[in-house]
Amino acid sequence: MSSKAVLRRCVTCRELLDRQQLWRVIRLAEGGMALDQGMGRSAYLCPSQRCLEEAKRRKRLQKALRCQVADSIYAALEQRLHPTSSAGAEAR
Fold first, then answer.
1. Residue-wise pLDDT tens for the chain (92 aa)?
2. Residue 38 half-sphere exposure, CB side, CA atoms within 13 Å?
3. Nearest CA among 6, 5, 7, 10 for reference residue 64
4. Phi and psi of 5, rounded to 5°?
């Protein structure tokens, strides 16, 4: 028999999805933050521009993880959405 999908809820849109379809942001037990791998308190986010922007604007990850989320975490997630785009496009 195949194993059942493990479902997790996006902190922004609240949609219940297979955890492999979501990004995992972790507040590590030893301190610091990580994406995808590690032990600690986790929050899940849909890999979409809308959910990422809403999470940042409404501080959804901070509330779920109960700590500050560094801009570098948001930047890394943004990079996953647009892996080939350059950061210079915003400088105006």
1. 557 889 999 999 999 999 999 999 999 999 999 999 999 999 999 999 999 999 999 999 999 999 999 999 999 999 999 887 555 544 44
2. 18
3. 10
4. -70, 140
Cβ–Cβ under 8 Å, residues 62 and 48: no
Residue reference for tokens 């379809």: 21
- List of domains in the chain: 7-83 (3.30.1230.10)
CA nearest to 63, candidates 80, 41, 46, 37: 41
For the packed helices 71-81 and 49-57, what is the interaxial angle rounded to 10 degrees?
Answer: 170
Query: Is the pTM above the cut of 0.90?
Result: no
